[in-house]
Amino acid sequence: MSRIEFMQGNTASAEGALAAGCRFFGCYPITPSTEIAEHMARKLPKAGGTFIPMEDEIGSIASVIGAAWTGARAMTATSGPGFSLMMENLGYAVMTETPLVVVNIQRGGPSTGQPTRAAQGDMMQCRFGSHGDMATIAITPNSVQEMFDLTAKAFNLADRYRVPTFVMSDEIIGHMRERIVIPDSVETVSRPPLAEGELPFAAGDDGIPGFAPFGTGRHVHVTGLTHDERGYPDTTDAEAHDALVRRLYRKVESARREMADYEVTNPDAESVFVTYGPPSRTVQQLLHDRQDEGVGHLRLRVVWPFPEFALQEFADAKVFLMPELNMGQMAREVERHVDQPVIPIPKLGGELHTPAELASVLEAHR
Amino acid sequence: MKLVIDESRCKGCNLCVLVCPYTIFQEGTKPNRRGIVVPVLDRPERCTNCRLQALYGRTLCGVCQMICPDQAIHWKEEEPYEAHRVEVEY
Amino acid sequence: MTSARDWLRTDRLPHIYCTGCGNGTVINCTLAAISGMGWERDETVFVSGIGCSSRAPGYIQTDSLHTTHGRALAFATGVKLAKPDLNVVVFTGDGDLAAIGGNHFIHACRRNVDMTVVCMNNQIYGMTGGQGSPTTPMGAQSTTTPYGSAEAAFDLAELAVAAGANYVARWTAYHVKELTKAIATGLQTPGLSFIEVMTQCPTNYGRRNKQRRVSDMIEHMRTHALLIEKKRRLESEGTPIPEGMFTVGELVRRARPAMGVRR
């Protein structure tokens, strides 16, 4: 029997992780994500998992990677400043193909910024934040229900593609309380196992090698150095590096259709809002108020890898409007893929756009 | 048992020369194919471990093997066993 | 029962270490201690950070994690706590552990997670070409201390004692038998065991500090190592301890509460 609860977004995210079988949490407290850690601290030991308060975010993500290699589903939660500290080890996780989940409850930046206010300023950081070329997965919930559902889903994506997966939420959703339906169980996808006789970093056509957790006798050498299919460092061969980085990039980018998760409203519209996260709630309100089929809405749940084909669903679009809680980060990505004008609607300071604000921009560009 | 230096691993640091209590290892003089001057063995049958490992069932002394940073020193079984005349020096 | 040689990834040898480098010796001693424990390769994990020392796990035939600079202990904490059945051994160096990883070091000692940490202290950043590290002795030459190091050096073993590790010892790459015994004791002791090994780096330390030959460095370690018992005796007698000596031996063995001990 599923149960109905009234819950905070952060708590729902922790519940989603527990339902997905998360059994390791590396913690460093940071506003506005701390409730996730607090909830895990209470629940994880009872579920047979490990909760460990680490000395900093560098340590928390490091412990998560270590735990992931023992085969456990592992995660941490943080916000902007902590996310910045994690960048080096997240690059390591990409290079070593370590499946893990990071929930980023975004707050105003740069730097310490606005600890208790919402923002979406880390959308580029989660994709390009670590040095070198890399591809990651980012998903963006817009409700407490989705905090549960998408956190659970993040583990499946991480395990399926062996890549760090980010739940890019924010203070608004994290601290909002809503009705939520908690199912009895959630669907889980397991890591592709390392076949007998197969090399630990050799991949098939999908670019995803099999996973052999520590302690299973496969003697995997895991290194952040450029490595060959055996996992041995090979740092000077141009072809080896080219092949590895391209594979890491393609295994995520080429799977963007199977990963795609978005909602289309009024596909025949000429003015189209493109949103992710909480600004989508304002657009939903606007559409509800106006009942205008000339205004479309594309809401992304998976932002990275970016589903550029979703934009083609609006064949008659004349303009794309992008309300974001940043200076227009994803608007640039949309601009790359369409010929129509893309109008960023930045909102900084921690409040959502009001429907009236969006309406006035809409009228100005019709 | 027979004392062996693995020439494919030795880098010629001569730490074995420094530590062997029987001065079995001597600094080499000629570079090998890899350009490394590998130490030479002076009457290796004097090595305690060569003579007594089988009898005691454990490694005796073995300091050269432990200190060799390149994992190049080990003992090999001799087939067939050759009796050695050992001159004990006082 | 395995022998130390069974634990080597022979297809990767010879390793990248310079001629005369002490790191290879430390690998020998660690593997000898581990095989003496009767541990299985399938249930042992080696973790390391970045630097010369941290390349060691790549030459050992087990699961191994070669991580980012300074973070080895944080990764190892995750491995051990997620799966306490695994035996965890960490290889690290002085730059890795004391500089960039200093915070993780003191907290790993405080938490007393059940693992053994072997630090190869060559008093220099070797892999990047010989820059001064937090353990470079005062006055010593390096590429970043061309007028002699102006800073006091860290005593890593004392730091581990103060931070709460259950077993702390220091030996050198010359004292192979004592080192092997110390590592074995560390492996047996529940909680965090820290074994600091003074190692020679002829290429980047000795060359600039009047110890050009490997034998010079070994001789220096041999003559400047002061047994902890002797040091305590000299201190109690009020006899001054000569300049430049460092203590070797077992600094502490205790039973503070430990985390991640095999159930």
From TrEMBL, chain B:
Domain of life here? Archaea
In what residue span(s) does the 4Fe-4S ferredoxin-type domain sit? 1-30, 59-78
Q: Which organism is it from?
A: Methanoculleus frigidifontis
Q: InterPro entries, from UniProt?
A: 4Fe4S_Fe-S-bd (IPR017896), 4Fe4S_Fe_S_CS (IPR017900)
Xref: Pfam families: Fer4, Fer4_4
**UniProt name for this protein:** 4Fe-4S dicluster domain-containing protein
TrEMBL record, chain C:
Keyword set, alphabetical order: Oxidoreductase
Asked whether the UniProt record includes Plastid among its keywords, one would answer no
Tell me which Gene3D superfamilies the record gives. Answer: 3.40.50.970
The highest taxon in the source lineage is: Archaea
InterPro entries xref list: 2-oxoacid:Fd_oxidoreductase, THDP-binding, TPP_enzyme_TPP-bd
Q: Does the keyword Oxidoreductase apply?
A: yes
Domain Thiamine pyrophosphate enzyme TPP-binding positions: 50-197
CDD domains assigned: TPP_OGFOR (cd03375)
Protein name as catalogued: 2-oxoacid:ferredoxin oxidoreductase subunit beta
Give the originating organism: Methanoculleus frigidifontis
